[in-house]
Design a protein that fits this description.
Blueprint: H1 8-31, H2 33-36, H3 39-59, H4 72-76, H5 86-98
Length: 105
């Protein structure tokens, strides 16, 4: 996916995908603690933040914003080898900041 999502449904799908990826990474980290090391520490915060975002979408309280989502500081400091879906999380944040891609570009 190159551009931001065009519909609210696509945006929610991105967040759901991120939650799936977080759970998948957590399972991998628990299985292979030696190579994943401190991954589980930032995963707890990441999952909490993304879950809160998803809940706000579900209950109708979500608002697009002018500031980064709370998880961005954690994500920016992770290597893509540790966080293979880093770009997905940054895409969600970009959508949060800029809104849906209603122009279709």
């Amino acid at each position: 996916m190159l551009g931001r999502p065009k519909t609210p449904e696509e945006y929610v799908d991105l967040v759901d995908q991120a939650l799936f990826e977080i759970e998948d990474l957590r399972q991998a980290a628990e299985y292979d603690m030696d190579s994943m090391g401190d991954a589980t520490e930032f995963l707890d915060r990441l999952e909490r933040d993304v879950r809160k975002l998803r809940e706000s979408m579900a209950d109708g309280s979500y608002l697009f914003g002018k500031e980064n989502l709370s998880y961005v500081k954690v994500v920016e400091h992770q290597d893509e080898r540790i966080l293979p879906f880093k770009m997905l999380l940054l895409k969600i944040n970009e959508t949060h900041l800029k809104g849906l891609d209603v122009e279709g570009g």
